[in-house]
Design a protein that fits this description.
The protein has 240 residues and is of the alpha+beta class. It folds into 3 domains: 85 residues, Winged helix-like DNA-binding domain superfamily/Winged helix DNA-binding domain (Arc Repressor Mutant, subunit A), CATH 1.10.10; 80 residues, 3-Layer(aba) Sandwich (His-Me finger endonuclease fold), CATH 3.40.1800; 31 residues. Helix content is 43%, strand content 11%. The protein has a 3-stranded antiparallel sheet with strand order 1-3-2. α2 crosses α4 and α11 crosses α12. The longest helix has 13 residues. About 3% of the residues have low confidence.
């Protein structure tokens, strides 16, 4: 596999030192690709898209493709995106945000996740570009308007959803991302190009008792909690 990769790119890939990204890169150099199954079972990464994203954030383009797992099911696999390498794709890597950027976002938005809206300690919030680096590349701006704070679970959820999106995989249209749920959960027209509307609602602390009551009532009606919430909204006068 290494013989097929341009020398300049190979040197760049080998220069990556971040542990998780380096693990993925070294495996691909040796074997040509790496599957989500290998990432989980061989390396213990329970969220493979996050590991792949780590590589992309180092400026190393990866291609996601379908692969048959050991149980016969179709799973995802990753390999270097040679087309992007040849075309001189987005190889610059995404730089780390300085602490002052996070401090400015906290001053603007408080200690809240931009998606689930739960409050967290600062160390549990991550600075994220609204439009993914893998789509916008070097055209990204570090203006605060283009950044948001996300908790770990929401950041991983965004990563997984984006990786399945046709715009991420092929089109790379910034405008499509800008109208996506993951860019602006309050004003959007689609979720990863699919006509879906969603609302992330979370209960914390004393509020969990409300959720527990909803869960118990939903179980009695043989509904999911989200199904019960939809039923309650439809029956209410809130939307009239």
């Amino acid at each position: 596999m290494a013989s097929e990769i341009p020398k300049e790119f190979l040197n760049r890939a080998k220069a990556v030192t971040a542990k998780r990204a380096k693990t993925v890169i070294d495996h691909i150099i040796e074997h040509g690709s790496i599957t989500t199954e290998e990432l989980k079972e061989r390396y213990g990464y329970n969220h493979p898209p996050r590991a792949a994203r780590d590589v992309r954030e180092q400026g190393i383009p990866l291609e996601t493709f379908a692969h048959v797992g050991s149980d016969g099911r179709t799973i995802a696999a990753y390999r270097f995106d040679l087309a992007a390498i040849v075309d001189g794709g987005k190889l610059g890597g995404r730089k780390a945000f300085p602490k002052v950027t996070k401090d400015r976002l906290i001053k603007r938005d408080g200690l809240f996740c931009g998606v689930c809206t739960l409050e967290f300690e600062s160390r549990y919030l991550q600075v994220d570009h609204r439009v993914p680096y893998e789509v916008a590349g070097e055209s990204l701006s570090d203006d605060l308007d283009q950044l948001m704070l996300l908790c770990g679970p929401c950041n991983r959820g965004k990563s997984w959803s984006c990786e399945q999106c046709e715009n991420w995989i092929k089109k790379k249209e910034v405008e499509a991302c800008q109208s996506c749920y993951w860019v602006n959960p309050e004003q959007y027209t689609h979720v990863a190009l699919v006509q879906i509307r969603r609302a992330d609602v979370a209960w914390k602390g004393a509020e969990t008792k409300v959720y527990d009551r909803l869960r118990d009532k939903a179980a009695k009606q043989r509904l999911s909690v989200s199904g019960l919430i939809k039923k309650i909204v439809k029956k209410s006068n809130l939307l009239k």
